[in-house]
């Protein structure tokens, strides 16, 4: 008896201290409301602080960041030559005020004269020349170096014959000229990518020190240094020379290893924003967050590729049948609670080049699929490949079940592997069946949605697809003026949807959840799945 | 006694060398190029890849790689870096306190609760409390650690709000839920082990004699029974404490604790041999030291055991 | 004293029993077993646990007896339904009948738990006995070897091994778990043996000139089995859980296999929204583990000469 009494008392004490804590929080809130008595959605004075979910970045050097965790932060710390208007996906000025080209091959950028880094170092044309040369130099092992492979002189630098790109020229202090080996119309779009941000000369002296506390020229300035696995904090840079400075006064990226934990922290009010709700939580968002959530279409594309180097998949009828036997919407509803948009195209729907209703074989049609599959003599056993530990198991299994039921396939096996091993099997062409891969647009261009994955011999072309007509169309489109290029990219896309080297599955929808402090209307996510933090309005302190 | 300890300490050297070799070999044996996987779906250029492979000695044969690693450790105290360029020592320094705190809190929890439950079971042998404790320890063992973690998070973190759901920003309080999760299985095992041993001990003659002399039952259990029954329990707690340092992988990731277990898992997936070896070596050292202490404790608990 | 005849060898056991005031006559091995069986039959916990285990084993061997549905008949349009008359346990994420899936899951989970526990038990009995009995350098070698393996977290070993193996079935997963989980039980066994080896009757048997094997088999093994048997039954439960953890980490049993571990790891994210997905496999796992543990306890009590009830 006495034991249970003690337990009760302990419980009361705990509960009481919890009450005290909440009471304190409540007082703080009241004070804040009194300050901005006008309206609930009014922004707090100064912009307020937001805490945002993040994963531990691999790197915080622009040329070396190839994943979202690092890029999320770098986008706020740096500004490139150009920026994007996230409503229209048009390129707008960044450090460069204007740019010009005659032939899509030689590009001239006129830089703004009042740009500087957060340490006071001025930004000139030479800054970009130095940065780009440094990124490409193999000694510096920057993972994004090959984004520069179209710049004249790239091979010479890679082979360590020289350490300066021939195609880069600082014509005068504020004029930068870049000469490309091949005409490339989407070049300005490409320049919006993280790899093309400028870096101060301090960085080249000690890149390791720089990475722990990057000095940028962006809307935010890092506060202190990168606390590994804990957080990265940045204050708004009040001397930002560009347009549209950031709204929140301070951004704190809290680093989580488990996304479910982050979800519960937002729910408990310990974290303001989680940009990507895990699929298993989607059914309860309504109950957990009410109006404090927002769903965005993104350009993040998921597909099932087919190894065209295997005889089984060389017949296009087999590929069409496999595609028609998948009820994409049913899989999306059942596994993702509707949070994907079925793909009927290769170019993400948000881009100006996107087209509608051109995928004959993306419609669910089990009868026709079965007939086609049987007539074409499709394999009676399939092995589906995917990388493990990344949440693909459920939907891959669902698709496999549909194939079994709709195509009369006797057995479907699964191979899930660590990513490194998975990629190695791809390189060695040892994949024996449909495989999962994805593609996210680093910059918003139809070219980037297709050229790296489907042109002959490209590094991300895992299906082994090779089509002369397609290759020619892409090449032509890259060289054409913007108007004509749209049409050419669209023709190229139609070839892909007819030949079907990959079965388009869906474009991801990201659902963001947030605390009461955030104005829902100010949230916006771009094509690369980045929430535009600089635009967020905080309504409570 | 001193000679015994010195001999045991000398035996540690081959243990540490060989187990690091095993670990290094295991990580080396994972197929696939870790550098290739760094860049994701869009591969990096061959030039960069070559350079990175060279930087991390990945093109060397296995024994050369291992030798270079050991050489670095002994000549320059250089434990290598992650593929992100962070020194392994930094990581260990940052994460070790987290894991040690978690393990100690969990050990305390399982020792206290396990022993109390075990004693209760013996006092009330075959009565309701005994069965209740037994059934609930079975349940704790049978519930997978993942489920326990989430249940605790939901009930005590979210619904009741007594403890932080995750992270270690709030100091020791934030370690309670993860420690309970980590300790749950072992608490049940300790309770059962102790019950078994105590029940045996209660039937030995000296305990019977003590009872016959008219000592109170609880005093008999405490003075005579426990002392003998503790040997397997202490062995288990010791072994478990050592393995906890490595076995906290799941708990640390559920509760978002930036400890060593979480790092090891991440480094295995990323095939960062040096990180894995660095952390595992540390665990081996802990392990052997704790086991030595356990063996010494035997002597205190059971004077019949002599160290030769 | 110097005449190690068969009777002399058995005396210590009976001496211990006589000292405890419970054995009245010299017991030969056969009657010991018969005694054990007699006391087991009277133990209600033994009956209950044996019954549960029989049902579980039947489920593992003949799942068709319990359900007529095909576990692979899955339809997305009926996914994640809560329990109903039609689907007793509801349906899972893929839209399969969950009752059928749980029944069919018994085989792999029990197989893994059983094979691993048995393998580990054999290894630790032998190594623990030898190390604890002989001590000195034998103990040092075995103990340090145990340390080495124990120092490698089993998840690390499993991640690597199972990644290298092209297909991961019950056999592969069980083998890897055995390789990396035996040290705990071995240490436990060694501890008990050390304490059993320093008792008076062992000293007496040694003095009588009994052989090592005889002493180990007759005197030490029966007196040190207790904690190990206790742990071994619990261990089955741990292993069934470990199979789930490995699956969660992506290196456990592979789809399209059906196991409780796979079900638990699939259900984990839906803990709050669809608790039935977690509850049913959990119930079966718990029941199985409970049965193994209770059975182990009962057998242990019956076998241990000291704890025989009046």
Task: Explain the overall architecture.
The complex is a heterotrimer of chains A (541), B (308) and C (310). Chain A has 17 helices and 17 strands. Chain A has 541 residues and is of the alpha+beta class. In chain A, helix 10 packs antiparallel against helix 12 (366-376), helix 15 runs antiparallel to helix 16 (468-479) and helix 15 crosses helix 17. Chain A starts with a helix and ends in a 27-residue tail after the last strand. Helices cover 76% and strands 0% of the residues of chain B. In chain B, helix 5 (88-123) runs antiparallel to helix 6 and helix 10 packs antiparallel against helix 13. The radius of gyration of chain B is 24 Å and the shape is globular. In chain C, helix 2 (29-42) crosses helix 11, helix 3 crosses helix 4 (98-134) and helix 4 (98-134) packs parallel to helix 7. Chain C has helices at residues 6-19, 29-42, 44-61, 98-134, 136-151, 154-164, 170-197, 200-207, 212-248, 260-267, 275-303. Chain C has one domain (28-80, 87-307): MetI-like fold. Chain C has 310 residues and is mainly alpha-helical. Classes of the chains: A alpha+beta (541), B mainly alpha (308), C mainly alpha (310). Chains B and C meet through helix 1, helix 6, helix 7, helix 8 and helix 10 of B and helix 5, helix 6, helix 7, helix 9 and helix 11 of C. Chain B: Keywords: Cell membrane, Membrane, Transmembrane, Transmembrane helix, Transport. Chain B: It is found in: Cell membrane. Chain B: This is ABC transporter permease. Chain B: Belongs to the binding-protein-dependent transport system permease family. Chain B: It is a multi-pass membrane protein.
